[in-house]
């Protein structure tokens, strides 16, 4: 009987000792997008010009490891909102798009990075509609958590 109790206690200790708390090792935090650095661009209400190239600059951080990011630019001619900032820019009257600027590009971040500064050149064609646009940043870490940042911008003629 003692042997059964000892074996049962030993087996129980073996199984309980082999279990680990995965939450200690699992990444449970979203990455962050820092647009407060001195040379961050574009910031809310920035004016960009047709036929010109601008640089997207921000700092991305994560507690464990960054993954990749996406930049999307689409028109805001209907005055919709993504509500990631409290800043409100003056909007032009609503209008229907004829030839809106549409941009959607994925970017990789080198493996192992917990901090990454962007510096991506983006060209705005000469023939796109001027007006209100949204500059969307989607940052994903290696664990799959995502952070979204929406910036209101304007595209104008030179």
Summarize model confidence as the mean pLDDT: 90
- Global shape: elongated
Q: Report strand %.
A: 35-45%
The domain count comes to 1
Output the helix-strand order. HEEEEEEEEEE
Helix content: 10-25%
Based on DSSP secondary structure assignment, what is the total number of beta strands?
Answer: 10
Radius of gyration: 24 Å
At CATH level 2, the architecture is Sandwich
Strand order of the largest sheet: 2-10-9-5-6
Structure class:
mainly beta
Here the CATH topology equals: Immunoglobulin-like
Characterization of this structure:
With about 160 residues, this protein is mainly beta. The protein has one domain (about 30-155): Immunoglobulin-like (Sandwich). It contains 1 helix and 10 strands; from the N terminus they run αββββββββββ. It has one helix at about 1-20; strands spanning about 30-35, 45-50, 55, 60, 65-75, 105-110, 115, 120-125, 130-140, 145-155. The strands form 3 sheets. It has a 5-stranded mixed β-sheet, with no helix packed on it. It has a 3-stranded antiparallel β-sheet with strand order 1-4-7, with no helix packed on it. It has a two-stranded antiparallel sheet with strand order 3-8. It starts with a helix and ends with a strand. The model has no long low-confidence stretch (mean pLDDT about 90).
């Amino acid at each position: 009987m003692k042997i059964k109790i000892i074996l049962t206690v030993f087996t129980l200790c073996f199984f309980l000792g082999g279990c680990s708390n995965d939450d200690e090792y699992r990444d449970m935090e979203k990455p962050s997008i820092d647009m407060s650095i001195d040379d961050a661009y574009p910031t809310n209400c920035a004016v960009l010009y047709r036929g010109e190239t601008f640089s997207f600059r921000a700092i991305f951080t994560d507690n464990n490891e960054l993954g990749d990011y996406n930049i999307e630019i689409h028109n805001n001619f209907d005055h919709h909102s993504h509500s990631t900032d409290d800043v409100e820019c003056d909007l032009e009257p609503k209008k229907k798009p004829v030839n809106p600027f549409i941009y959607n590009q994925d970017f990789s971040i080198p493996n192992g990075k917990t901090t990454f500064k962007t510096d991506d050149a983006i060209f705005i064609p000469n023939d796109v509609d001027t007006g209100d646009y949204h500059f969307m940043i989607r940052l994903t870490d290696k664990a799959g958590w995502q952070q979204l940042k929406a910036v209101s911008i304007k595209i104008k003629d030179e």
